[in-house]
Design brief:
- The protein starts with a strand and ends with a helix.
- Helix 4 packs parallel to helix 6 and helix 5 packs parallel to helix 9.
- The protein is globular, with a radius of gyration of 16 Å.
- The protein is an alpha/beta fold.
- The chain has a six-stranded parallel beta sheet, with helices on both faces.
- It is built from nine helices and six strands; from the N terminus they run E-H-H-H-H-H-E-H-E-H-E-H-E-E-H.
- Helix content is 46%, strand content 12%.
């Protein structure tokens, strides 16, 4: 294998959470007087840390989101995860192959540690990701598209950035990986290939990813 570490994004790559969370985000922002469609949410916020949502709303409207916005949103998302969330179809096969071959891997997500844990517990992916393989934008000062999170994950895993490959499905994540000096494979299941233009390789199914990695 050409890499010493595989860094997975979480939402949309490991767990099929983007349709759920963006549906709820669009509804909540609209409820608060910021009309947002599902498509708007995918385009503007997919892959974002929570602070970027606050920043964009303030920049566009001059109004701040409520102080309890994150808490309310996560409560709604976690409840929906418990009812609906599934792993991305085929991703466990990729994890099984990496583990069998002894290839180090981890997750680096814009989501909070709580969100990652809820998603992994609900889908059964927690067996693949012990605590020391989970990294969140909460761990660094800036979320994606800044490179900080990916660089932090590589440092903690003891691998040089140029020996890492990132698996991402959002333009922000691709930008962050490129800025970190890492190769990135872009997942096109929900994102048009043109929006992942910085990726070294593109794939549309986890089976294709397994072939790229192995």
């Amino acid at each position: 294998m050409r890499y010493d570490l595989v860094i997975f994004d979480n939402d949309g790559v490991l767990v099929d959470s983007e349709p759920i969370s963006n549906r709820l985000l669009a509804a909540y922002l609209t409820e608060l007087g910021h009309p947002t469609s599902y498509e708007d949410s995918i385009r503007d916020y997919m892959g974002s840390a929570m602070h970027r949502i606050h920043d964009l709303i303030l920049e566009r409207t001059g109004r701040r989101l409520p102080a309890d916005f994150d808490e309310v949103f996560h409560t709604r998302v976690f409840a929906a995860f418990e009812r609906e969330l599934q792993p991305v179809a085929g991703v466990t096969g990729v994890l099984e192959k990496l583990a069998a071959d002894g290839v180090p891997y981890c997750v680096a997500s814009s989501g909070s540690h709580a969100r990652i844990r809820v998603g992994h517990r609900t889908t059964g992916l927690d067996r693949w990701f012990p605590e020391d393989r989970i990294f969140s934008s909460e761990d660094v000062g800036r979320g994606k598209p800044a490179p900080d999170l990916f660089l932090y994950a590589a440092e903690r895993m003891g691998v040089a950035p140029e020996r890492c490959v990132v698996v991402e499905d959002s333009p922000l994540g691709v930008q962050a990986a490129v800025a970190a000096g890492m190769d990135v494979y872009g997942f096109t299941a929900m994102t048009p290939a043109a929006r992942l233009a910085g990726a070294r390789q593109l794939f549309s199914t986890p089976g294709e990813l397994a072939d790229l990695l192995m």
